[in-house]
Amino acid sequence: MKRYSLVFLCMFCAGLSIAFAQSNTYYFPQVANGPYPGGSYKTTMILVNSGTAAVTLTVRVTDNSGNPISMFPGLDSGSFPLSGGSSRVVQSNGLGELTSGAASIVATGGPIGATAIFSQFDDSGRLQTEAGVNSAPLMRSFTMPVDTSGTYNTGVAFYKPGSGIANITLKLFDEGGAPKGEKRLPLGQNGHMAAYVTSIFEPLIGFNRGSLVVTSDNDISAVALRQGSGVGPVITTLPVSTPQTSFNFPQIANGVYPGGGYKTSLILVNSGMTAADVTVALTGDDGRPISMFPDLVSGRDNIPPGATKVYISNGVGTVTSGAAAISSTNPIVAALIFSLYDESWNLQTEAGVSAAPSMQNLTIPVDLLQPFNTGVAFFKLGAGTANITLRLYDSSGSRRGERVIPLGAGAHRADFVDTLFPSVVGFERGSLSIVSTGNVAAVALRFGQGTVPVYTTLPVIDGAFTGGGGGGSSFAGSFDGEFTVEGVSGPAGKLTMVIRQNGDMVTGRLGQDIGDGGCIRSYEFTATAGGSSIQARTTPLDAVSPEMNLSATISGDERRLSGSFSVRGCGGTPIRGQFDLPKVTGTNPPDLNGTFLGGVWNESDPPERAFVSMSGTLNGRNYVVDRIIVTTLIGLVEGTATGRLNEAGDRIENLVISLSTPVGPLVLRGEVSASADGKVIFGGLQTGPGEILPLKGSTFLRK
C-alpha cells in the first residue's frame, strides 16, 4: 500500500488547482484514474454555474508530455454548455491502467465554480476514503501546516502553468519555530512535482509537526495533503494560504454520540518574524460562548515567530457544535480538521477545512445520490439577524425548493440539505443557492458511507443563482380515479397523481394500479411547463416499471390541469388514460381535525400501495397526529406525526412521521396539502438516507 500512496498523493495534491483569472481558465495540474494492487482511484469533477448566463466549457486532459489522454468519459475533449444555475458531475471510471496527467478547463461566457474529489477504493470496489480540494489560486508566497507524527505524513504538490521557469524555495520549521531545512526547486513550463515532506528533507529526524514556508519568483499553485491511517486509509487536505489576521470557521464539533465520537483539531501557524497574540472565540447555536479545546480554555494564546500550535478537543461529553472566530495581532495561518471515530475511538475519517470568507451571495454543490448526503453550516458574522434564503436547484438548473431561515448575531446552524428540504423527492445532485441579508460564513461537507463513514469538504462558490422558476403562479392538484384501456382488451385500473407547479417547474408523482391491484407501478417526474403545456418523461420508482410519458395542458382561468398519459401495463398491455385535476386551494386554516383514510404509494420491495388511517388535530399552525396505522406487507405498523401549517395556510410543511415497525423505527418526512373543504389530503413522503426501510411515495387520504 505504501508503494502506491505517493501516486495517490500526486493525484490528490495536484488534482485541483484553479486560477480564477480573467480568462476563466481552471487548471487541474494532475488527475489520476485506475487500479493498483489492492484497490483503485477515481477523480470526480464538480462544475457549477452560479451565474444567469450560459457558459461554454472546453476541457482537455493531457499526460506528462502534454499529449491528449482519455480519463473522463464524455469530458476528455471538445466543448459543452453549462446553463445558468446548472451543474455537472463527471467521474473517471477507475478502469484500465493507472493513469495520471493534467486537465485544464476554459469557461467562455463567464466564471464557474469547480472542485475535485479524490476517492480511494479497496479491491472490492468499496469506498475507503476521499477528500475534496478547494480551488488554489496562483501565488508566489504561502505557508502550509506539516504533520509527520504517528501514522501521518504530509505531501505537497506544485504546478507552474504557462511559459517560464519558477524557482521555488522551501523552508521547513518545527513546532517551536526552529528551522529544519531549506530546499530550492526549479519548476519549468507547465511543470509539476509532488513529494512527501519527509522525502524532500531526507533525512528528517525528530520532526513531528511544523510548517512549510514557500516562496517563488513566478506564479505557481500548490496544495497539501495529510495522509494517515485509522480503521483504513485516511486523507485530509491542509490549507495552502497567505497569512492573515482574522478567520471564520462555521463548524466545530466535539463529543460522543451512540456508536462513536467527534474531535476537532485547530492548527495555528505563525510564519512571521514577530510573535502573534491570538484570540479564539467559540460560540454555540445561540451565539453564546462555548469551550471545546482544553489547552485553549482562556481563548487566548501567544504564538512565537515561526511556531506552530495544534489544539485538539478531547471528545468528552455529549456532542457540542458551534462556530469559531479567530483574530490575531499579526498575520498567521489557521486550519481546522474534523475527525470521526468509532465507539472504540479508532479513527474512521477526517476532513480538513480552510477558513470561510464573509459572503452574502454564495453557492455550494449538493450531492444526495446514495450513499451520499450533503450538510451545510452557517455562522452569522457581525451584529443583527440575517435572513438567509436557500434555493435548491437540480443539475439542470431547475428550482426544486426554497425556504428562508433567520440567524442571529454570532449564531450557528448546521443541517443536512434533505432536512432543510424534506418534501423534495427524487433529487440526486445539484446546488444550493444562498442569499443572505447579512454577512455569513458557510462550509459544506459531503457525507458518504463506504467501508467506514467518509467526510468530504465541498467548496463554497462566489455568487448565487436566483432563477429557475421561482416566479409565476403556483398550482397544486391531485387526482385519484379510474382510467380505461382504449382500443385493446385488458384490465382497467386506478391512477393516483400528485402535481405541484411553482413558476415553470412542475414536479409530481404517479401511481398506477392495474386491475385488482395485482400490478402496481410508481413513478416520479420533473418537467418544465412551456406556455400552457407540460411534457414529461417519468422515472420509474422500481426496477420493473417501463417509462410513462406524460403530456398535459393547463386550461383557462379555472386553473385545471388536464391531459393524458400512456404506459405499457403489466404484460405489455398498452394503457392510456385521461386525467382532470382541479386546483386544490387551502382555507386558512384548512380543516385537518379528525381521521383520514386512504392509500400511500411507496417504493419498497416489492412496490406496494399501503392502507393508512391517520387521526390528527390542527392547533393554530401546529399539526399533531396522535395515531397513524399503516397496513403493509410486514403487517400493521403504528406511529405519530407532527407538522406545521405554512404561511399561505394550504400546506403542512416539515411533516415528520415516526413509525414503529417489526424491523425497527422508521421516520418519514414530507409535506401534504389539504382541499378547501378539508376532506382530502395529498402530498409526498420520503425516508432519509440510511433508513432501515427506504421508502418514497405519495399520499391520498379522504376524511
Question: Short summary of the structure?
Answer:
The chain is mainly beta and 703 residues long.
What does this 3D model show about the protein?
The protein is mainly beta and 703 residues long. 3% of the residues lie in helices and 61% in strands. The chain is built from three helices and 47 strands. Strand 21 and strand 22 (347-353) form a beta hairpin. The longest helix is centred in the N-terminal third of the chain and has 12 residues, at 2-13.
Indicate the structural class. mainly beta
Based on CA atoms alone, the radius of gyration comes out at 27 Å
Please give the largest β-sheet. Answer: 9 strands, antiparallel
- What count of helical segments does DSSP give? 3
Which descriptor suits the 3D outline? globular
Number of strands: 47
By oligomeric state, this entry counts as: single chain
What's the pLDDT, averaged over the residues?
79
Helix content: under 10%
